[in-house]
Amino acid sequence: MMTVTECQTLAMETSATKTIEIVVNGVARGVPEALSLDKLLVWLEVDPGRVAVERNLAIVRKAEWSATEIAAGDRLEIVWFVGGG
C-alpha cells in the first residue's frame, strides 16, 4: 500500500521535473530532460534570432534545432551576434 507521500512523489516525477546536466558556455547547468535545442533556448531565455549554437563541437544549423534533442552530458556553446560599425 502506498502512502500519500509516495503517491505525490510519483505524480511529481514527470519529464517536466526531471533534469539532466549539460554544459552551456563552460558552465554546468541542470535543465529539464527531453528538450529540443529550440525549446532549450526558450527555457534559457535566449533570443534564437541572434545566436549560433555549437553542440559537442559541431555547429547545429537553425533548421535542425527543433529535431536536435539535448542529452545529458552535452556541451553547448551559444554565441550571440553583435552588431556594430
The best one-word shape is globular
**Count of domain modules:** 1
Indicate the radius of gyration in whole angstroms.
Answer: 16 Å
What is CATH's topology name? Ubiquitin-like (UB roll)
> What's the number of helices?
2
Average pLDDT reading: 86
Helicity level, as a percent range? 10-25%
CATH hierarchy: architecture: Roll
CATH classification class: Alpha Beta
End-to-end separation: 69 Å
Largest sheet composition: 5 strands, mixed
For the secondary structure, the number of strands is 5
CATH superfamily: Beta-grasp domain
Strand order in space, largest sheet: 2-1-5-3-4
Task: Give the percentage of residues in beta strands.
Answer: 25-35%
Task: List SSEs in N-to-C order.
Answer: HEEHEEE
Structural class: alpha+beta
* pLDDT < 50 stretches: 2-13
Primary descriptors:
alpha+beta; Ubiquitin-like (UB roll); 5-stranded mixed β-sheet; 2 helices; disordered N terminus
Brief write-up:
The chain is an alpha+beta fold. It has helices at 4-12, 37-43, and strands at residues 19-24, 27-32, 51-55, 58-60, 75-80.
Q: What does it look like?
A:
The protein is of the alpha+beta class. The chain has a single domain, classed as Roll (Ubiquitin-like (UB roll)), CATH 3.10.20. It has two helices and five strands; from the N terminus they run αββαβββ. It has a five-stranded mixed beta sheet, with no helix packed on it. The N terminus is likely disordered.
SSE topology:
Layout lengths: L3 H9 L6 E6 L2 E6 L4 H7 L7 E5 L2 E3 L14 E6 L5
Parallel strand pairs: 1-5
Antiparallel strand pairs: 1-2, 3-4, 3-5
